[in-house]
Amino acid sequence: MEKFVKNLKRGGLPTRCWLYMLILLLSFGLPESIFAQTDLVKVTGTVTDETNQPVPGVNVLLKGSSNIGTVTDIEGKYTLNIPKDATLIFKFVGYKTTEVAVNGKTTVNLSIQPDVKQLEDVVVIGYQAIKREKSTAAIASVAGEKIENIPVPSVEMALQGKVAGLNVLNITGEPGAKGIVTLRGNTSIASQDSRSTPLYVVDGIVMDEGDLGQIDLTGTNPIAGINPNDIESIDVLKDASASAIYGARAANGVIIIKTKTPKAGKPQVRLNGYYGVAMKPTMRSTLVGTAERHLKMDLIYQYLGKPGMENVNYWITDSLNPAFNNNTDWQSNVIQKARIQNYDVNVSAYGEKTSYRLSYNFYDEEGTVIGTGFTRNTASLYLNARPYSFLNLTGNIRFSEMSRKKTNGSINIFSTWSFPSSFFKLTDEDIENFKGNNLDELDKNLNRDLYANFQANIDFTPYLKWTTSYSFGYSTTRNDYFIPSYRNDGNAYATSSSGSVKRWEIENYIQYLRSFKETHNLSVLFGQGAEYSYIDNLWGEGNYIASNSIQTIQGVVSKNSNASSSIEERARLSWFARLSYDYKDKYLFSANWRMDGSSRFGKDNRWGHFPSVSAGWIITKESFFPENQVTDFIKIRGSYGITGNDPAGFYDAYRALTTNVDYRGGSGITSYNGSGTIAYDFGSAVTSRELGWEESKQMNFGLDAHFLNKRIILTGDYYIRDSESMIFNYALPVTTGYTEAKNNLVSVRNSGVELQLSLDLLPHNWDWSWTIDANIAMNKNQIKKLPNGNRSIVTGAPWMEWILTVGRPLYEITGWRSNGIYATDDDVPVDPLTGNRMTFFGTTMQAGDIAVVDQNGDYNIDYNDKVSLGNPDPKYYGGINTTVRWKGISLGVFCNYVIKRTFWNGFLSDRMNGGVYSAGGWGNVSGPALDFGGLKYYTTPGQQADLPTLIATNHMDNRHIAHEIYTDNGSFFRVKNISMSYEFPTALVNKIKLQRLRVYGYMDNVWVFSKSKTYPDPENINTNGYANGSEYPLPHKFTLGAEITF
Asked: Is residue 49 over pLDDT 60?
């Protein structure tokens, strides 16, 4: 591996790579002969747009010729010498292609018309862009205008519900934090907290979350550095035929983001900004003051009667004492109505030889928890130069800085467990401490990213094109944390950690595109690439710092300090190819192939091969298909392919070494003759020389149909994706000397159906328009293979466990089935052999307890009676968007939904725990009183209750989260956002020397409808499916903004 990495670090590629490219280039021959120079006329003209502005850069081509043409200059003018009976073709991106017969004229002017559907009819498939109707892959596209100005810090949150099969869950309301993004199901087997994430490619730059995850010191979402308002289009590559060209990085799908480029016309300056608020979130319902006192007194009397009142804490009974008669609402002291602001400015121009776009964005979102928030500064530059007709040079550079404040201290304000009773009196200093405003406490998180891509395109002939692309990325993260001594038992403690990723990638590929007799259309692409990443991390800590004013690791004696650093390197070498062919634009075929060599493997398994094939048939182009005014287009398509994945760890294929060789895992560094020693790390997983590539084999069948002149568009897909030979750590017997082994041991299948429907409901000649876009996806996740003879694997602590079982989804939650609540002691089953009532871990069960199902019939409930209770990942999910427009007014409503999802409702079990009485324990520091209104819990013998008794009288843990009664339905339907805008008429705007003026408003996270009766928001739960109400809630946001173009 060392030699492999060093060769790539030098930037040197094998000589034979360049030799193969040269041979391929020469094999395509020379361009066709030039057009005959007889009977020519000089034709001039000007091309303008719909506003009568000149359009530079329009391609003016001679029909029937492959090498005669020109482009319009900065004033939209052109000149050509062509036959007098020729026909000119005018082409420009975003406008309709137009043909004009010359008929002997010497002046041909043209006003080109916008083609609003043209961009939607082109998809990016990796190294190429093709017409959507010729695509044989499963690809979904989202126009940038559909995600503009949504008040979210990260682009993937704006994609929620907009792409069938893309599951986006905003699990936290903390600004800048990560959510869940999976495409066609989860394949991650690392833990119950992990999810498989698609590959992001931004303007040709690969954002490898595997690399970025190695320096995740801040918890900030790395995708949040992209300004959503800079995005032109997003293409989601779902199946292997689309993503196999990316090989080892595309096992979980690919999201290709293309940012905006200059448009034709005069130079433009665009200003855009919005400002708004995030409302205070709905907190856990608690009672304070007199209401808390009455609730606790009632519960004590209800369960224990008058004798129980003898041990009641005087804080509850002495209501006349002003020192006790307080009503502190702890939660209100730490939440706020927060500010949101976003400002964009960009300058762009499209010239005959050069084009540019410079953009700057500032985004700032305060958290609804005081002391939290997220700020982003992003600057980007696009440059394009066309010095010669055959040479096109492009550069994209983006810099972003993200600063994120996280929750300070150890107090989880949403759980309420960290708070005393409302009887406790707060001083001003106490209030400041709980607000997190104390300046002595520090939790600073900073991310900086610099990405650049430079590309050269050479047109050797009209059919033969060469591209060289070089990408560079440099990302840094830093976390500085300090907690003063008075908050940490006298220990002023600080940590500082930093990490960086340096990454480069170079790709060279050649394309041959040609049509023969307007019947056979051929496209061939062949290329080679290399990439290298260098990752370093540094960490240090200091205890008992001399002063709370220092806040850094200074003045710390050696025994109270610690530090470590690490360096990791990886490299990959690749070959890739694509062949696309169609006959008469109706019989379609495509094949992809990629070969990747990764330094993460040993020399025997270094190379992986990833092929795919796909085919399509456009039925409506057949002569036998009847012409009609209803059906415009029907295409059926199918594909099969293999994508891959190398290990998450850079050195998983190699034996780990350590300097800690103390017997039985001691924490010291063993020395020999005064020097540290190195030995095998028996605490890490033992690896195998046979460790190989993970493979994802995917089959896809799809249908695309258009009706009524594209007023109805339907897309459907059925897929089966088998993720095989997945790398997994499994436990080893103690006698081996190791704790775990690592190998290709697990297989997972995801299969499902996706439907996407677009409706344009009103005639186009009306002033009104009404469109509806809806999608739904169904995914079935199941494990196909496990190690050790397919034995089930249980993870987690005994009180909260997840299970892996063949035939079942990944990491289902497990627990005890419940069959109601015992109304009387006689309802408890009796063991016919012993005559004793059923027990719970040996404790006799009684009225008011949960009726747990005895799975093995031994009349004792224990861990052997646990079963699977549900899947925390949804089975159905999707979104619905509707937009109504009248002249310049637009009103849009977007909703998303999730169906059939199970989660642990710790919010409910904690509420029950909050009511448990311990004699004399309910005083000033016993915890808040939770509102039990609406909960039908057991109080009296014979009662048919939904929940167990609040009083723990027999030591059975009735509030244990593993009971089925604490699992809940995670389905929801959310009104995600409502938008309204008004665009001022062009004639009016032009009078004040503007090109465009638009005002708009957004309401985000408007309302959620849920089947859960006790949990406020079932989207706001942890990745593993557990939620106890301590999660950062999703706020309601309201913004107003304006967009001005000069």
From this structure: yes
